[in-house]
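re: that chain from earlier
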Amino acid sequence: MMGLPIQLLSARIGVARGRHLAELCRKEYQYWAGLLLWFMSELALIGANIQEVIGSVIAIKILSNGFFPIWAGVIITASDCFIFLFLENYGVRKLEAVFAVLISTMALSFAWMFADAKPSGKELFVGLLVPKLSSKTVRQAIGVVGCVIMPHNVFLHSALVQSRKIDPKKKGHVQEALNYYSIESSVALLISFMINLFVTTVFAKGFYGSAEANNLGLLNAGQYLNEKYGGGLFPILYIWGIGLLAAGQSSTVTGTYAGQFIMGGFINIRLEKWIAFPD
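^ sequence. v structure.
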């Protein structure tokens, strides 16, 4: 809910001003302030991309049954990122289609896990309406917020809305575009909320209050899930791997794409995609 107004303001700026947020920051703020904002944005983006690449690497290791080592997973992730970004040369809509496929795969995978876990609907509903946190879970709560909030997406959103040609002088067209962007952002954040709900619920039901929770991490999460919920028709380990791979790939591509706009907007340097990837 807190992210929706920010995303809507980001879209409004892009449509009404015809420039994305990083460009407007360079124009409106003093040089030193723009540099400071650029440095903080790049630092946040690098931190986000590191965890996204790690997620993809672990997913590749899971799906290959450990055949690919960590370094090979990094190379595969980087190669995939270049291929997906190359699609932009054939139009932004092609890249949007790739994002749609990756997000759909991620949502279906985690929804499958949620169905396998069979959580109590009543407890889940009560937990959503009346959240309770003890002092011992503050660190985990902050971690969840940090995982969900991605500041670079604000810069990216203000830039992507300009891919559709809208005359800012025609108020009717601008308002119509903003209405559609509001619907688009609301649906996207709802899907994001559901995906996070699926993942959090599965792990909370399986490991909350158990001794295994102390040893649980991204690297061994799939194995713990498999031991807890069993194989079933399709082993939950591989469902987790597929969802994790889709999440990592979509986030890595998004981060690299946002990095181009951040650097180009704040300091007016345009980098090729293959150079911008380490961002």
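Residues 121 and 127 are 10 Å apart (CA to CA).
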